[in-house]
Amino acid sequence: MWDRGLEFLATLITESCLRLQVMPIALAAYSPHLKGRLERFWGTLKPGLLPPLPGYTEGPHDLRGNHAIAATALGEDEFLLLLDDWMTDYNANHVVSTMKMTPLQAWRADGTLLDEVAPERLWQDMLVSKERNKVSKNGIRWDTINWVAPELVNVVGRHVEIRHLPHDRSFIEVFLDGAHLCTAVPVEDLDDQAKQDIIERRQVARAQAQKRFTTANRMRGKKHPNTAKLAKDKDGKRHVVDPHDDLLAGGAQALEALFGNHDNRDDDAQLRLV
User: Fold this and answer.
1) Cβ atoms within 10 Å of 266's Cβ, excluding its own
2) Cβ–Cβ under 8 Å, residues 142 and 174
3) Going by C-beta distance under 8 Å and a sequence separation of 6 or more, which residues neighbour residue 244?
4) Residues 105 and 165 placed together within one structural domain of the fold
5) Which domain holds residue 50?
6) Beta strand pairing call for 139-142 and 129-136
7) Is the residue at 252 inside a domain?
8) Which of 146, 162, 195 is the last residue of a domain?
9) Quick one: 56 and 101 in the same domain?
10) pLDDT tens-digit profile, the chain (274 residues)
């Protein structure tokens, strides 16, 4: 249950709750008595954490109405760290007078069973920040970080979708064609063994690609005489073995057979048309 703030009434929030089999209920306006626990939370957080912070809107002001403590508010990242520290300390050390124990002790003493939710059920809702990136041999380059995972070796050159938490750069989830592919981490976070495993998988993938390339050349030479047979020169560049068997040459012959013999002006016009 929550109030009628637009962020709570958003379609995404409603759909997320229903996917987790939670019934969302928007309470009547101006009815704080219907959500006492939430009001108690804010009644504890505001006086306990916010007043000493710079830029606190309800703090002291000078005669001109400006903040007396600081000219600017605290940065978002700094505030999140302070919020986390305050909540951890409150839950672990603050003794609630009505329970005679800390919130952490009350949580551990509660015998209510928890419903475990599989991580993949949360990807669509919690990882809402999405971007498309191309996989290179070095992984996925995003946010000035190279993200790597063993599974990315097999999809080099393809575009994937990544999803991530807005304030977390410890991992990203990678999706290919709408299906979850892997969890990628910054390359700096890998140990030497993990890096070596990725290098070995990359070498295996390269060998398999070379094998497919050789097999494709063999098939072209046997079954498709009008298709060029490709090879690699000493610099590793691909080229056509016999220019007369090139696919482009076959295309030119097909155009000539289709349009017949005309003068050069008609040929140019037909080519422009094609």
Assistant:
1) 12
2) no
3) none
4) no
5) 6-109
6) antiparallel
7) no
8) 195
9) yes
10) 888 888 888 888 888 888 888 899 999 888 888 888 888 898 999 999 988 887 777 777 777 777 766 667 788 888 889 999 999 999 999 999 889 999 999 999 999 998 888 877 777 777 766 788 899 888 899 888 888 888 888 888 899 998 887 777 888 889 888 788 888 888 887 776 666 666 666 666 566 656 665 655 555 555 555 455 555 566 666 555 554 444 444 445 555 554 554 444 444 444 444 4
Q: Are 60 and 68 in contact (CB under 8 A)?
A: yes
What tokens were used for 13? 């929030």
Identify the helix (H) or strand (E) that includes residue 259. Answer: helix 247-259
**Token digits for 54?**
């710079």
| Residues 6 or more apart in contact with residue 217 via CB below 8 angstroms | 229, 230, 231
Please indicate, yes or no, if residue 66 is contained in any of the structural domains. yes
Is residue 89 located within the same domain as residue 144? no
Residue pair 198/148 in contact (Cβ under 8 Å)? The answer is yes
End position of a domain, from candidates 109, 128, 157: 109
pTM above 0.70, yes or no: no
Same domain, 127 and 81: no
Tokens found for residue 208: 């398999």
Q: Which amino acid is at 54?
A: P
DSSP 13-44: HHHHHHHTT----BPPTT-GGGGHHHHHHHHH
Residues 6+ apart with CB under 8 A from 98: none
Q: 30 and 96 share a domain?
A: yes
